[in-house]
DNA sequence: AAATAAAATTAGGCAAGACTAATTTTATTT
DNA sequence: AAATAAAATTAGTCTTGCCTAATTTTATTT
């Protein structure tokens, strides 16, 4: 049986793997979870014992086939619950992540599939992330960010890379949602800040970090 | 902050209090939860410190006003989720309790109220237990069974008293669900068997035990 | 290459929440 | 009332999952 904490580590490793494709180190996991590296080392041993990950100093942490399956299922549940919270219970964009973070751990063999069906088999969650299907397959993840747009270029918001409520509330405040059109007016070479126009409105300046957190389609 | 374990104890105490109205002893709690009495004593201290219960050797365990509020909210969440699982996700009667047992611990200020609204403010859960309202008030528990109906009387199935899969599968086979209309045609005085008509269909005979397991509204 | 910095690991500890075993208190029988 | 049984409590232990502090290993500078 997999514990709540183990599930959170798996999910974190899965996310780091998807995000960067780079070597996943204990420190990276610790930072991502807000835990101490020593705790991460403990958990790496547990997950290795359970054959959910492999750890090698050279390669870093890697999910085993089983680990990938488990992690994908957690992500599936998380994203399905997000759709439910937004569409059925009327929550806002920035509220659903934290609740889904709890709901994703509810264990029942058929729950995800039933929820999926009830929601009409959605392809993407409200953050624009693809929802893994029952067989583990999922649509392609968007990877181009606002920071990749050429100066003068136009794009459309399709998803968010950062799901902290701070970021989501900031988006809300700026009036940015899925589908919002953004034009990149200028890139400040000093710190790579971005001057943008949201839905054709007046220019606003956002940080590089912001730009890298917003996934877009050109 | 109240922990998962504390919530489970609170709920257990609440149930014992509702069920019997008798003195609630550590042993009774231990039996009900399948825990060791020593563990219960530990938790009694914690809950007392948090002012959620009072404990007195003479009076046993009693919920404080705050304890009652908290327990009622947990029960509210549990029963609302049961309705959701049955009505929206198509689970069977006998599957919903265990899942709701997990879902009831999801903490969010507005979740219960939103779910309540989404479900159309149900009065009762599928086991016939009343769902506490947001203000803590609740209807009376269903207690009339098919066996209480007068000969010739018409009634509507509102809940089940017995949740064994044998019974539930039998109901399935007979085509009886929540809302099904039943007319009591005849009561066999020999063994109190009941001749009934399900949704106006042809007569069928069921046992007294069966009649006493089906909660109805006249 | 040596020095320094960063990352990883080990050792030891803590709190929650369960347990067992032993003891004390309370209740019930004889 | 004494003996016995049952219930309650205490003491000490275990596991999970986190921590800090110290140490070792690895990477980066100088």
What does this structure look like?
- Two copies of one chain form a homodimer.
- By secondary structure, chain A is α+β, with helices and mostly antiparallel strands.
- Among the domains of chain A are: 4-63, Winged helix-like DNA-binding domain superfamily/Winged helix DNA-binding domain (Arc Repressor Mutant, subunit A); 146-217, SH3 type barrels.
- Chain A contains eight helices and seven strands.
- In chain A, a hairpin with a 3-residue loop joins strand 1 (53-56) and strand 2.
- The mean pLDDT of chain A is 94.
- Chain A binds a DNA duplex (30 and 30 nucleotides) through helix 3.
Morphology of chain A: globular
CATH homologous superfamily placement of one domain in chain A: Ferrous iron transport protein A (FeoA)
- Which CATH class of one domain in chain A? Mainly Beta
Reading the helices and strands of chain A in chain order gives HHHEEHHHEHEEEHE
How many angstroms separate the termini of chain A? 44 Å
The quaternary structure here is homodimer
Give me the side-by-side strand order of the main sheet of chain A: 6-5-4-3-7
Q: Largest interface, by Cβ-Cβ below 8 angstroms: which chains and how many residues each?
A: A-B, 17 and 16 residues
Structural class of chain A: alpha+beta
Count of alpha and pi helical runs of chain A? 8
Averaged pLDDT of chain A, please? 94
Query: Stretches of chain A where pLDDT falls below 50 for ≥5 residues?
Result: none
Helix content of chain A: 40-55%
Q: Radius of gyration of chain A from the CA trace?
A: 19 Å
CATH architecture of one domain in chain A: Roll
Largest sheet of chain A: 5 strands, antiparallel
Work out the strand percent of chain A: 15-25%
């Amino acid at each position: 049986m997999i514990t709540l904490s183990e599930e959170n580590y798996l999910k974190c490793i899965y996310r780091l793997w998807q995000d960067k494709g780079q070597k996943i180190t204990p420190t990276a996991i610790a930072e991502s979870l807000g835990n101490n590296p020593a705790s991460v080392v403990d958990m790496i041993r547990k997950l290795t014992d359970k054959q959910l990950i492999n750890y090698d100093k050279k390669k870093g942490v890697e999910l085993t086939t089983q680990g990938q399956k488990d992690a994908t299922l957690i992500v599936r549940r998380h994203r399905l619950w997000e759709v439910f919270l937004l569409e059925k219970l009327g929550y806002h964009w920035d509220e659903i992540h934290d609740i889904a973070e709890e709901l994703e751990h509810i264990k029942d063999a058929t729950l995800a599939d039933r929820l999926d069906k009830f929601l009409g088999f959605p392809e993407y969650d409200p953050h624009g992330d693809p929802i893994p299907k029952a067989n583990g397959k999922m649509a392609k993840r968007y990877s181009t960010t606002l920071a990749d747009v050429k100066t003068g270029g136009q794009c459309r918001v399709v998803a968010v890379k950062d799901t902290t409520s701070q970021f989501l509330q900031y988006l809300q405040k700026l009036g940015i949602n899925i589908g919002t059109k953004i034009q990149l007016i200028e890139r400040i070479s000093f710190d790579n800040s971005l001057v943008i126009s949201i839905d054709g409105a007046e220019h606003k300046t956002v940080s590089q970090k912001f730009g890298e957190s917003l996934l877009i389609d050109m």
